[in-house]
Amino acid sequence: MSRCGTKLLVKLNSVNKSFPSGDTPQRVLRGVNLELGAGETVALTGESGSGKSTLLHIAAGLETADAGEVLIEGRDLSLLTDSQRAALRRGTIGVVFQQFNLVPSLSVAANIAFQARLSGREDKEYFNYLAEELGLIDQLEKYPETLSGGQQQRVAIARTLAAKPKIVFADEPTGNLDEATATVVLDQLIALAEESEAGLMVVTHSANNAARMKRRFHLAGGVLT
Amino acid sequence: MNRKFSTILQALLSHWQRKPLQLVTFIGGLALATALWSGVQAVNSEARKSYDAAAATLGEGQFDQLVPRVGNTIPLVTYIKLRRNGWLVSPVIEGQLNGIRIVGVDALTSPGELPDLQLSDNTPLQDFLGKGTIYANQETALALNISVPVQISSNVAPGIAITDISVAQDILAREDLTRLMVANTHSLNREELAVIAPDLRLQPSQQSADLGELTESFHLNLTAFGLLSFAVGIFIVHSTIGLAFEQRRATLRTLRALGVSLISLIIAVIFEIFTLAIFGATIGILLGYFVAAALLPDVASTLSSLYGAHVAGTLQLRAEWWLSGYAMALFGTVVAITGKLWQIASMPILVSAQPRAWAMTVGRGRTLQAIIALLLISGALALLGFGKGLVAGFAMLGCLLLGAALALPTIIEKCLGFVQGHVRGVISQWFLADTRQQIPGLSLALMALLLAIAANIGVSTMVSSFRQTFVEFLDQRLAPELFVRIEDLGKSAAVEAALTANADEVLLLYSRKASVRGIPVEIDGIRVGKTYRDNWRLLAAEEKVWDRLATGEVIIANEQFARRAGYWVGDIVSFAGKDLLLGGVAGDYGNPLGQIILGEKLYRELYPDDRAFRFGARTTDQEALKMAVQAQTGLPDSAFTNQADIKSFSLQVFERTFAVTAALNVLTLVVAGFAMFTSLLTLADLRVPQLAPVWALGLSRRELGKLEVLRTLVFAAVVCVLALPLGLALAWILLSVINVEAFGWRLPMFLFPADYAQLLAYALLAAFLAALWPAIRLARIAPNTLLKVFAHER
Questions:
Q1: Which of A122, B94, B690, B792 is the 20 to 30 Å CA partner of B414?
Q2: Does B3 touch chain A (CB under 8 A)?
Q3: Could A83 and B263 be called an inter-chain contact, meaning their C-beta atoms sit closer than 8 Å?
Q4: CA distances from B649 to A7, A30, B99 (A)
């Protein structure tokens, strides 16, 4: 169980991470502990380069920690094979990337449906609902390169939500959006967390966005407070 | 195929759907590489197949034959008489009908097996003997146009129709025979030929062996081309696949991040690439077929002149071409894909997809590549020093070519680095730095270009040296204007007297077969005269060799014998009970046999009973000389050969060889140029983020486009400079190592600077053309596209 009394989805125990930087490695995470429960929303703030994205990537199993434990639904990521980790990413975890990471050769519709098809959770109604809510209905046949940054970000968010993951990690999900769209996007993410008992961890610079999350953490000097 | 797999595959294939031009270049690169390989193989194997068919059909070259001394016919009664007297001979009748050579054989007495005519399974012999069927290949059958039933058989040589002897006699309306094949085994009590059939003479098998050797050399030429085209093809396939991966690096990373397992991704990539490779290879094999079909008429006429056998003017798509074409394409694919898959497997999911990251990864591999290159070149040198045999020769060739190709990126990098350190201008410095950064992306295409140019130089040098040597050789050996050959040794003195009375100079030749050091040789006796002294160029010789040959003090050997027996000028050769000083070694191109030349005096001493039977005569009026000799000796026309005829025949052969080689040269260069084009086109898209800042800082798109062309020309120029010595080394190996190992004679190497200059100009032109379209695209790129780089919206 998480601290909030809900089912524990993500647990980070004493996670350390360094990157090579000249002669002395740069330590970006120092003994970080973090928990995320079902239906919980968490904001992660910090200055640029403080290691927020690294922490999110480690929690999502995209990067490995130098030391410490990362548990997703109680399973230690370091003990899983590549295929098992991949299965977690497509079935349990959804990541909204800062750089969107859309497949450039697939249409908007195919991009949105991609992860849902991979995980076997295609839902036509939900697809249409998301496209409508995120203002993408008229963009479905287009390709990512023809969209603006904000539109691409909405496609990335729709792709994550369409797969109905149990855990959503979102890296600056509203960074390229206008205020009104940002509100809609954040509403959607929070609604998903509440309706489907999913966990949501959002990396953000915005104090307003952070304030809408149940719990807030600040990362500075590699330490989470 | 499950849903997950099809989703992954769809994502991968959608790339080609969105970028059809890249798909065309990918398939095109694979297809051209395969076409080059399979085209050369097709020409080679078709020619060989035709030899085999000719040999099998006619039994020529395999068996001794009895032929008439005068005329072209043998009476049936002579055949019967020979059979009754223990001669195991089989009759053959030959004649022309509608331009086709009709060959009638007797299946029951034929000494060899009947050729595999693909007769029907149940009654092959009955069909052949009783039904009056004629067998011919499709092309010949169409041209035959007769009422007799014709059975198509691809195993019959082109231009020939084969049938039972009685059928042939009916068709040709003749009752005589043309020749008699003699079985290798014979009755112990058979009588002398001169007693039973004095009008016939025994023509030993393999009479055309010397021409066969030349044909083999022609094949060596093509085989070397096949090997080189294979190497060029492998590099092109590697380059094409490498670039296809690079274009989709970000997509592959995204797929992994979205939950596609490594193993699923690898399986999908393998499935995709191999499907495309098979598709490209199929197009390539068909393309190679058309290339070969276009070249084959030249090859056919070349080999027809050389060998006297025909090569089919039309090709068949044989199973082995399909297999070798697919094998080549798939081997290239496996080589290319293995490294790429390893990169996917070992690279963390979130590594940046920037080209610089790729360049750095490749840069680390380049050190290893340089070490392998060094090892291969050292291997080539070691094989040169210690290797023996044809396999070692080809291994040396492979090591040198591969080593040089692998060393190329490092050499270019060092050259550009050196120049960069010595230029001041800011644009020049940026240009050189940027050019160095492009090396990983272009290196494989540059390697293919290097090999293509080197192959061109090497093979052209080989063929041109061959031609020049042979023409000079013909001038030496065919100096006499008229040649006379007699069958009846009793006429030797009379012919010599007639020639001496009417010609300016007479060269006579005694000859006999012998064995020296276990090597079969022809011992020739010659009368040393002005013609030998003026025309013969020896590969190595003692002082005053001709004078000393005339007195019997020294002998001369041909190169084949000298190399095989391990003798050279100054050594003592023991034979016929004498120790004789080897005074000279003569080049004897195209002759498979060892030869020892003695002065007439020594020859007559050793073999007093022999008579000269071949004569050369120097004259200004060949016809008058011939008539005078005929009047005095009664020799038939067939005893005389005109020098001009032989020379023009031989030169025609080489002109045709050049036509084929030149066509293959152009093809290789076109393919390498296409590889450059593909690489540049692919890199053009990836380069936008690198060029955008330079554009923003004040270089116009037009200037950037010009610099792109200049960059390609710089690369091509460096490649040309390196290709020249590599090509010459290749030629040297072909002429001085492989030819010696294969045929026992060494061809002198000549240089053809004008040809090389022309070739290098073509290579630069090909590079220029390859760079033009990507540069134009860059010059016309929308500013919006460049601006997106700064908005991180790409």
A1: B690
A2: yes
A3: yes
A4: 95, 88, 21
| Whether A83 and B262 lie within 8 Å, measured CB to CB | yes
ipTM exceeding the 0.90 mark: no
Task: Kindly identify which residue of chain A lies nearest to residue B14, measuring between CA atoms.
Answer: A105
Residue A94 Cα distances to A40, A61, B188, B518, angstroms: 15, 11, 95, 83
Q: Is A101 on the interface with B (CB under 8 A)?
A: yes
Residue with tokens 């030993």: B204
Q: Give the closest of A85, A114, A149 to B258, CB-based.
A: A114
Among all residues of chain B, which has the CA nearest to that of A147?
B793
Per-residue pLDDT tens for B205-256? 543 334 445 556 656 666 666 666 666 777 777 777 777 777 787 888 888 8
- Count CB neighbours of B586 within 10 A: 22
Q: How close is the nearest chain A Cα to the Cα of B357, in Å?
A: 16
DSSP code at position B737: I
Say how far apart CA B496 and CA B692 lie, in whole Å. Answer: 88
Q: Which of B578, B618, B575 is nearest to B594 (CA)?
A: B575
B584 vs B119, which has greater pLDDT? B584
How many angstroms separate the CA atoms of B766 and B154, rounded? 41
Q: Is A95 on the interface with B (CB under 8 A)?
A: yes
- Identity at B211, one-letter amino acid code: L
* Among candidates A85, A115, A120 on the partner chain, residue whose Cβ is nearest the Cβ of B258: A115
For residue B3, list chain A residues with Cβ-Cβ distance below 8 A.
117, 120
Q: How far apart are CA B581 and CA B571, in angstroms?
A: 6
Nearest to A89 among B3, B4, B259 (CB): B259
Quote the pTM value: 0.61
Predicted pLDDT at B525? 92
Whether the CB-CB separation of B597 and B489 falls below 8 Å is answered with no
From first CA to last CA, the distance across chain B in angstroms is: 33
User: By three-state DSSP, how is residue B665 classified?
Assistant: helix
Beta bridge partners of B781: none
Residue B793 is encoded by which pair of tokens? 């919206």
**Chain B residues within 8 A of A120 when measuring between CB atoms:** 3-4
* CA–CA distance, B301 with B653 (Å, rounded to integer): 8
pLDDT for residue B206? 44
Query: Could you tell me the pLDDT band of residue B378, with boundaries at 50, 70 and 90?
Result: very high
Contact between chains at A104 and B793 (C-beta distance less than 8 A): no
Question: Do the beta carbons of residue A201 and residue A55 sit within 8 Å?
Answer: no
Q: Average pLDDT, whole number, for chain B?
A: 78
Contact A82 B348 (CB under 8 A): no
The pair of structure tokens assigned to B355 is 């080209």
Using CA atoms, how far residue B703 sits from A70, B670, B708, in Å, is 53, 28, 9
- With beta carbons under 8 A apart, name residues in chain A contacting B11: 103, 105-106, 110, 114
Identify which of B401, B231, B239 has the alpha carbon closest to the alpha carbon of residue B333: B239
Residue A118: list chain B partners with CB under 8 A. 4, 7-8, 258-260
The Cα-based distances of B777 to B195, B670, B715 in angstroms read 87, 22, 20
CB B686 within 8 A of CB B780: no
Contact residues, chain B, for A109 at CB < 8 Å: none
Residues 6+ apart with CB under 8 A from B644: B481
Across B308-312, B669-673, B684-688, least confident range: B308-312
d(CA B720, CA B760): 6
Q: List the single residue in A with minimal CA-CA distance to B2.
A: A118
Minimal CA–CA distance to B373: which of B400, B344, B337? B400
Q: Where are the alpha helices (DSSP H) in B687-700?
A: 688-696
Query: Quick check: B14 and A106 CB within 8 A?
Result: yes
By Cβ distance, the residue of A91, A102, A152 closest to B259 is A91
CB A57 within 8 A of CB A96: no
